Amino acid sequence: MQPFLAHPFDSDRLHEECGIFGVIGVADASSFVALGLHALQHRGQEAGGIVAHDPESGFNSAHRFGYVRDNFTKADVMGTLPGPLAIGHVRYSTAGTKAATAIRDVQPFFGEFHMGGCAIAHNGNITNAAALRRELIERGSIFQSSSDSECIIHLMARSIQRNIPERMKDALRRVEGAFSVIAMTRTKLIGVRDPLGVRPLVMGKVGEGFVLASETCALDIIGAEFIREIEPGEMVVISRGEVETSRPFGPSTGRFCIFEHVYFSRPDSIIGGRSVYETRRQIGVELAREAPIEADLVCGVPDSGTPAAIGFAQESGIPYGLGIIRNQYMGRTFIEPTEQIRNMGVRLKLNVNRSLIAGKRVVLVDDSVVRGTTSRKIKDMILDAGAAEVHFRIASPPTAWPCFYGVDTPDRDKLLAANMTPEEMRDWIGVDSLAFVSLDGLYRAVGEAEGRNKACPQYCDACFSGDYPVAPFDQLERGFRMKSGSETAMNEAAE
Amino acid sequence: MQPFLAHPFDSDRLHEECGIFGVIGVADASSFVALGLHALQHRGQEAGGIVAHDPESGFNSAHRFGYVRDNFTKADVMGTLPGPLAIGHVRYSTAGTKAATAIRDVQPFFGEFHMGGCAIAHNGNITNAAALRRELIERGSIFQSSSDSECIIHLMARSIQRNIPERMKDALRRVEGAFSVIAMTRTKLIGVRDPLGVRPLVMGKVGEGFVLASETCALDIIGAEFIREIEPGEMVVISRGEVETSRPFGPSTGRFCIFEHVYFSRPDSIIGGRSVYETRRQIGVELAREAPIEADLVCGVPDSGTPAAIGFAQESGIPYGLGIIRNQYMGRTFIEPTEQIRNMGVRLKLNVNRSLIAGKRVVLVDDSVVRGTTSRKIKDMILDAGAAEVHFRIASPPTAWPCFYGVDTPDRDKLLAANMTPEEMRDWIGVDSLAFVSLDGLYRAVGEAEGRNKACPQYCDACFSGDYPVAPFDQLERGFRMKSGSETAMNEAAE
Amino acid sequence: MQPFLAHPFDSDRLHEECGIFGVIGVADASSFVALGLHALQHRGQEAGGIVAHDPESGFNSAHRFGYVRDNFTKADVMGTLPGPLAIGHVRYSTAGTKAATAIRDVQPFFGEFHMGGCAIAHNGNITNAAALRRELIERGSIFQSSSDSECIIHLMARSIQRNIPERMKDALRRVEGAFSVIAMTRTKLIGVRDPLGVRPLVMGKVGEGFVLASETCALDIIGAEFIREIEPGEMVVISRGEVETSRPFGPSTGRFCIFEHVYFSRPDSIIGGRSVYETRRQIGVELAREAPIEADLVCGVPDSGTPAAIGFAQESGIPYGLGIIRNQYMGRTFIEPTEQIRNMGVRLKLNVNRSLIAGKRVVLVDDSVVRGTTSRKIKDMILDAGAAEVHFRIASPPTAWPCFYGVDTPDRDKLLAANMTPEEMRDWIGVDSLAFVSLDGLYRAVGEAEGRNKACPQYCDACFSGDYPVAPFDQLERGFRMKSGSETAMNEAAE
Amino acid sequence: MQPFLAHPFDSDRLHEECGIFGVIGVADASSFVALGLHALQHRGQEAGGIVAHDPESGFNSAHRFGYVRDNFTKADVMGTLPGPLAIGHVRYSTAGTKAATAIRDVQPFFGEFHMGGCAIAHNGNITNAAALRRELIERGSIFQSSSDSECIIHLMARSIQRNIPERMKDALRRVEGAFSVIAMTRTKLIGVRDPLGVRPLVMGKVGEGFVLASETCALDIIGAEFIREIEPGEMVVISRGEVETSRPFGPSTGRFCIFEHVYFSRPDSIIGGRSVYETRRQIGVELAREAPIEADLVCGVPDSGTPAAIGFAQESGIPYGLGIIRNQYMGRTFIEPTEQIRNMGVRLKLNVNRSLIAGKRVVLVDDSVVRGTTSRKIKDMILDAGAAEVHFRIASPPTAWPCFYGVDTPDRDKLLAANMTPEEMRDWIGVDSLAFVSLDGLYRAVGEAEGRNKACPQYCDACFSGDYPVAPFDQLERGFRMKSGSETAMNEAAE
Question: Domain holding D242: CATH number?
Answer without folding.
Answer: 3.60.20.10
